[in-house]
Each structure stands twice: as structure tokens, then as C-alpha cells.
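Researcher: Here's the sequence for the chain we discussed earlier.
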Amino acid sequence: MQDVGPGVTGFAPGLRVGIPWVHWTCGVCPDCTRGRENLCPNALFTGYDVDGGYAEYALADARFCFRVPESYSSREAAPLLCAGLIGYRSYRMAGPVERLGIYGFGAAAHLLAQVAKSDGVEVFAFTRSGDREAQDFARSVGVAWAGDSELPPPTLLDAAILFAPVGSLVPQALRAVRPGGTVVCGGIHMSDIPSFPYALLWRERVLRSVANLTNSSPSDDRAVSARRSECSVDPLAHRCAQGSGGAPPTPLSRHPAYVAAACRPGPEKPGSSCDTQSASTSFGIAPLRRPTGRPPLKTMKVGIPWMP
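Model: Thanks. This is the structure I predict for it:
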């Protein structure tokens, strides 16, 4: 962090911080005033409404910034700010479980599977039909079972989380959970959900979505930041660094899991064609397209570190 603006507390120049997807919320709408700012209709998002991703400096709203503990490398922290946060929030929405299904085994799933396993939860991974490499990858991080998404699990699940944006998986997941179980849709986008018989939802099964994160309940939404010891992103980052032209080698190049390495092309270094940068702090400065008449930002100027 290079500098802080008027009214910012709890941060000081020199601290290392991360910036997540939520850039700003209005603070005055019914959702914001009820502690549900993740649903703010006036919200702005990093890299979508404001420039972000590849600049040397950024302006960030202090309300949505995370301190990065010294025990973390930037490479380890970056995946937790997106995939880790939405994965953990989805996990919390699923409620207490003993058996958890995950549909789509990519960036969020491979982190969440390790956290759930450390909680003593049996994890069942569902991938696209015939994708044996993804299933082997899921087994390598400790899932109890991995198979095609069209197949039923070997036992009924307490909950299922969908990271794959495929609407046809919703009825499949409802069939896979026990009565009283929960199906959580963890993505921003999903293809149309086909019609299905009410019997799949009956007996108090719950179907819900997850959106963004809040800043009013740090003990819940940011708890994932305390779970690094159970989430190993180093193998993915290592494979990315050894790839060609900034792309990870197979089998990960065929699967979205490799994006958790937060890797992008950078200045060439001996023996490496890909410099791993911290996605947690690389957001660009630009005039904010913020609705007029809204509360001003309490901003901080954040620099981007290069990592060896």
C-alpha cells in the first residue's frame, strides 16, 4: 500500500493488501443498511465497472480490502481472494454437512475440497462426462469419490455446490441430495435451468444462489483467509511457471483449475516463460463510473508487487 485517503482507518502505507471482486457499494440502499451489501443494486466491481487487473497502481475502497498476513506469499494469497472467498461462502451457505458434492472441479472447487476435507467432510467431485484427468486431479487433493456429473453419487449427499455454470446440473444435484439437503449455485452466470418435477424439491430440499461477499461479517466471509494451511496452491502455480508461453501444461491446461495460480505473462526471466503475479493487488487506476450523489470512496493507493 502506497497511501491512504481521508477517513481510512486500520490501514497504513507499507501494508500488503488484497482487493476482491466487490469494489464499492453505496451504503444507503435497503440491502446495504441491512448488512447485505453483497446485494447492493448500485455496486461496482473490480475489472468490470472499474479498470483493474494489470496496472502498477490502483485506487481501492478500504471497506473491501484485506490485509495479507506475512505468513502468506502473494502467490498463495491471490487465489483465496476470488476462488477461495466464493468457494467458502458457498460452503457456509450449504450448512453443516457430512457429505458434500461439488459439481465442476476448478479453481474454487480444488481449494474448497481441501478445506472441507480438513473439517472431516466427505467430498464427492463431479466432472464433465469422461474427464478422467479432472477426476484424477480431484482425487489428488483428497476427495472421497470422483465421477461423471451425469451419474448418481454412491450415497445421498447432505448438500451440493455447483461451480459449473450448467443449468442442467441443478436437477441432477437435487436428485443427489437427501431430503432437507441444500443445493448451492456458486457462479455469477449459468445456462438456463430445465424444468423438473416438484418431487425433486419437495421434502424441504433447498435451492439457492450465492452472490459476492459482505464486509459486515468478517468472521464468516473472510474466515477462508485463516485456512491457508489446508489449501495448497503451490503445485498449480509451479506447473504454470513451467509451462510454455504463459500457459500451464496438460492436464491442467484443459481445466479451469489452473487459474487459481494467478499466473500471467510478465518480463522474461531465465528458465521461466511465465512470471506469477499477485492478482490480489493488480488493479488499475481510472475515473470511477459511480452514480452521482453517492457517498465518496475512502480510498487507498495500492501498488503491485512482482514476485520471484
